[in-house]
Hints:
- By secondary structure, the protein is α+β, with helices and mostly antiparallel strands.
- Helices cover 25% and strands 28% of the residues.
- The longest helix has 11 residues, at 62-72.
- The protein is globular, with a radius of gyration of 16 Å.
- Zinc ion binds next to helix 3.
Amino acid sequence: xxxxxxxxxxxxxxxxxxxxxxxxxxxxxxxxxxxxxxxxxxxxxxxxxxxxxxxxxxxxxxxxxxxxxxxxxxxxxxxxxxxxxxxxxxxxxxxxxxxxxxxxxxxxxxxxxxxxxxxxxxxxxxxxxxxxxxxxxxxxxx
Length: 142
Ligand SMILES: [Zn+2]
């Protein structure tokens, strides 16, 4: 899975599998943590993972958790990202599209991420820019 320049080459299935590995649902009081896992492949081909944290006052999605790990390592741009959760009743794994806050976060940390791929299923991806159309700073009215 290693690329010539040391970066990883990862397919949708690889990234989905890495996101699945970090799923570890824990209930604390009425809140559940780590029931969504995310994996992001940075621009340089480094893998970062994260889970959601759900608290009363403030929580964070798995995608932003993984992106924060990427930023901690010094990168802001990424190639692709995926988030997954497992349905407790059926046991089936699902790919989740990022929420609006995560989409905007991805754009805000580096405008290059508008070209990054958001994995929406094993054979399905969309560029971030197609998930947040009309993202340009508005022109003055007059
Ligand atoms: Zn989100």
